[in-house]
């Protein structure tokens, strides 16, 4: 029987209490923290029936405010980068708070990942879930407009973890969320994702400059490049490579946006991540136009391990300890009218869905 429960996860040094919401259904378990509306763990069986956590997790909740801040978090108001923190407006450019080499990354220095969200459980159509809500006032990190945000995590008996995002505003503002989970399907505490295989349903990607901002001009075809994931590619073929200019700019791996096939508002297949040794597979479906693949090209914080005290999760300070599949709008979209629109308007609420289907072969 699907179940949802809540328990304290820890107290931050500033006195804020973090809660853990646990969803369990069909042999799959997901833990969600109110800090950053974060996916803290996701455990499911391999082909032999052995369950393991496949999400890299900080050792303690306080670590999520430091080097491990993005692990599993809901990031916003705008996921990814906005060049120089500038967004156009009729009265002139609006300056956002910057936090990465003069650019705005994942909503700024005090983004949604550092906030305590309010949580409430729900059950619907054979699923259990938690709805997490947050109010972001006008001027938050420089962004215009008051915004009300909800992220609904739900888990089905079939092992499908669904994330439904919604938001509304009273003034036009750049907006786009993603989940920043780092996946390692091996279940091993000390391993990299070199032996993982990745498929991405995309024929184009957006090349970047040295600041990882998309270059001017149209997306480039993936055909004939290391970015061709239209057939599953073993990640060891691209990680640590510096002979390709784009891989070298990202630090020897992927930190790029793929232009996903299809335009339907219904979730469609975006990626498949698999681990041949254990048989574990995650299929990712989304309504978003793009997906940023990040292969942890700098070291994951050495405290990125189990946060629950249960010896089931990945733990590795090594480079390439996980891979993030960030379904989202393209980087720097507010400055790029040639990209799909990333503006939240009062007359048009924001809706987005990403689904992770777990399994083993």
In short:
By secondary structure, the chain is mainly β.
Question: Could you characterize the architecture of this molecule?
Answer:
With 361 residues, this protein is mostly beta strands. The chain has one domain: Distorted Sandwich (Beta-galactosidase, Chain A, domain 5), CATH 2.70.98.10. Helix content is 1%, strand content 40%. The protein has 1 helix and 28 strands. The protein has a 9-stranded antiparallel sheet with strand order 11-12-13-14-28-24-23-18-21, with no helix packed on it. A 6-stranded antiparallel sheet has the order 17-26-25-22-19-20, with no helix packed on it. The longest helix is centred in the C-terminal third of the chain and has 5 residues. It is globular.
Q: Main traits of this protein?
A:
361 residues, mainly beta, Beta-galactosidase, Chain A, domain 5, 9-stranded antiparallel β-sheet, 1 helix, 28 strands, 1% helix, 40% strand
Structural class: mainly beta
Segments where pLDDT lies below 50 for 5+ residues?
302-317
CA radius of gyration: 19 Å
Here the CATH topology equals Beta-galactosidase, Chain A, domain 5
| Lateral strand order in the biggest sheet | 11-12-13-14-28-24-23-18-21
Domain count: the total is: 1
Mean pLDDT equals 93
Question: In the CATH hierarchy, what is the architecture at level 2?
Answer: Distorted Sandwich
Tally of extended strands?
A: 28
Which geometry do the CA atoms define?
globular
SSE string, helices as H and strands as E: EEEEEEEEEEEEEEEEEEEEEHEEEEEEE
């Amino acid at each position: 029987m699907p179940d949802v429960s809540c328990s304290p996860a820890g107290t931050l040094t500033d006195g804020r209490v973090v809660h853990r919401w646990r969803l369990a259904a069909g042999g799959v378990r997901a833990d969600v923290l109110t800090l950053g509306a974060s996916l803290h763990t996701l455990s499911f069986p391999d082909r032999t029936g052995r369950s393991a956590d496949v999400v890299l997790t900080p050792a303690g909740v306080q670590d999520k405010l430091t080097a491990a801040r993005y692990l599993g978090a809901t990031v916003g108001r705008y996921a990814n980068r906005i060049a120089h923190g500038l967004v156009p407006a009729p009265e002139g450019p609006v300056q956002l708070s910057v936090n990465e080499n003069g650019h705005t990354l994942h909503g700024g220095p005090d983004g949604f990942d550092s906030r305590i969200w309010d949580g409430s459980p729900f059950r619907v159509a054979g699923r259990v879930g938690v709805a997490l809500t947050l109010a972001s006032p006008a001027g938050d990190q420089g962004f215009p407009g008051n915004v009300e945000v909800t992220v609904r995590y739900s888990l089905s008996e079939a092992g499908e973890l669904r994330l439904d995002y919604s938001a509304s505003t009273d003034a036009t503002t750049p907006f786009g969320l993603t989940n920043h989970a780092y996946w390692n399907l091996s279940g091993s505490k000390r391993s990299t994702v070199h032996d993982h295989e990745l498929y991405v349903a995309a024929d184009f990607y957006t090349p970047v400059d040295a600041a990882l901002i998309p270059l001017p001009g149209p997306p480039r075809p993936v055909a004939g490049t290391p970015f061709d994931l239209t057939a599953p590619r073993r990640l060891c073929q691209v990680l640590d490579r510096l002979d390709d200019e784009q891989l070298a700019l990202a630090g020897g791996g992927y930190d790029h946006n793929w232009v996903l096939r299809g335009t339907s508002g219904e979730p469609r297949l975006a990626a498949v991540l698999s681990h041949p040794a254990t048989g574990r597979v995650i299929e990712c479906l989304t309504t978003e136009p793009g997906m940023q693949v990040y292969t942890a090209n700098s070291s994951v914080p050495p405290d990125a391990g189990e946060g629950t005290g249960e010896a089931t999760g990945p733990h590795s300070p090594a480079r390439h300890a996980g891979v993030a599949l960030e379904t989202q709008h393209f980087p720097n979209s507010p400055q790029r009218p040639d990209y799909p629109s990333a503006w939240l308007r009062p007359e048009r609420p924001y809706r987005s869905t990403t689904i992770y289907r777990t399994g083993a072969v």
